[in-house]
Specification:
The protein is an alpha/beta fold. The chain has one domain: UDP-N-acetylmuramoyl-L-alanine:D-glutamate ligase, CATH 3.40.1190.20. Helix content is 32%, strand content 25%. It has ten helices and 15 strands. The strands form three sheets. Strands 5-4-1-8-9-10-13-14-15 form a nine-stranded mixed beta sheet. Strand 13 and strand 14 form a beta hairpin.
């Protein structure tokens, strides 16, 4: 990867219709919308914007597919406004832009997403061209919501595997992002990708799904189970590291057997608006630190700090700031104790 610089994101670009509601209602009940806005969403969008906010000097490109409609034009305009090279953010007239109704409950702080895949169902390995990019890292997502990418492709288990192979053959390091789909579906789609990944940054439930073991019990993270799952997944793939994040902290398992642990930022409850995009912000901080050859502990601190900054807004990227500002905010709020 000598001489390479920058990050290229690939996969999910969608319009998030962010809504903060008083509470998430049961069926046949009513809950009031307290605020709403429409912004870019999806891992390829979120991570690209987050990286540009962390460091506006770092080159960022993206690959994706949007519809030839107002939502697609909004997404392309948002990418351009943040200085993202969107030459490979293609447009189709065969389907509308993928959108998500993203609800955040003020009462619980939890989120619920209801989506229409639209153009995302048409994204295919043919849309990805790594021949001209000088990027160092590909961040790819999201398996489970792209029909053609989820299907077998040119002798490979899926389009995800085909794209990861293409990227590594072109000299890029690779990371895969996930979303909250059924655990058995995560396992089926992600396990064939593991031999073609250099990094894997996931949450506590996702690492358990890949490993096939329980890592969250009664809505509480089983940290010991996460550590074992991270080691198991690391051994099954080609990754240099596996990072697992959860509300109270995160851990990183490395190929040499080391395990780095760090608690999360003690964000004041009054500062939390929504968790939508916090996982992408964590991944952005981690990838930025790795790209810049920081130590794992320093990259993990920035990952937590970026996630904490993102919690202040309803949109996925609106309140992320420069990496120094994120770290200052984390030091101001302080760090939690490592959970026991």
């Amino acid at each position: 990867m000598a001489g390479r610089r920058g990050i290229i994101t690939g996969g999910t670009w969608c319009l998030d219709r962010n809504k903060i509601v008083d509470f998430w209602p049961p069926e046949d009940a009513v809950s009031e919308v307290l605020s709403e806005e429409a912004r870019g969403g999806g891992s390829a969008c979120n991570l690209a914007i987050d990286i540009r906010k962390l460091d506006p000097a770092l080159p960022v490109e993206t690959i994706g597919l949007v519809g030839d409609d107002a939502d697609g034009r909004l997404l392309r305009a948002e990418a351009s406004a943040h200085g993202i090279d969107c030459a490979q953010l293609a447009v189709t007239d065969r389907a509308p832009t993928h959108y998500t109704d993203a609800y955040a409950s003020r009462r619980s702080g939890r989120r619920t997403h209801i989506y229409n895949p639209g153009a995302a169902a048409l994204l295919a390995p043919e849309h990805f061209n790594f021949g001209a990019t000088n990027a160092r890292i590909l961040d790819l997502g999201l398996p489970g919501i792209h029909k053609l990418m989820d299907a077998p492709s040119t002798g490979n288990a899926s389009g995800w595997v085909s794209v990861l192979k293409q990227a590594r053959a072109a000299g890029l390091a690779t990371n895969l992002e996930l979303c909250s789909i059924a655990p058995e579906r995560i396992a089926a789609l992600v396990r064939p990708c593991l031999p073609h990944l250099d990094l894997l940054i996931v949450n506590d439930a996702e690492i358990g799904a890949i490993a096939g073991r329980a890592t969250v019990r009664d809505d509480r993270t089983d940290i010991a189970a996460c550590e074992e799952a991270a080691r198991q997944v690391l051994a099954a793939g080609a990754m240099h590291l596996v990072a697992v994040h959860f509300p109270s902290g995160a851990l990183v398992a490395e190929r040499d057997g080391s395990m780095t642990r760090r608690p999360s930022v003690g964000v004041p409850e009054a500062e939390v608006v929504g968790a939508n995009g916090a996982g992408d912000a964590f991944a952005a901080g981690m990838l930025y630190g790795w790209h810049e050859d920081w130590g794992i502990a320093e990259a993990l601190a920035l990952a937590h700090a970026a996630a904490a900054a993102s919690l202040r807004g309803a949109s996925t990227t609106g309140t992320v700031e420069g990496w120094r500002g994120c770290l200052r905010l984390a030091e101001k709020w302080g760090w939690r104790e490592w959970p026991r």
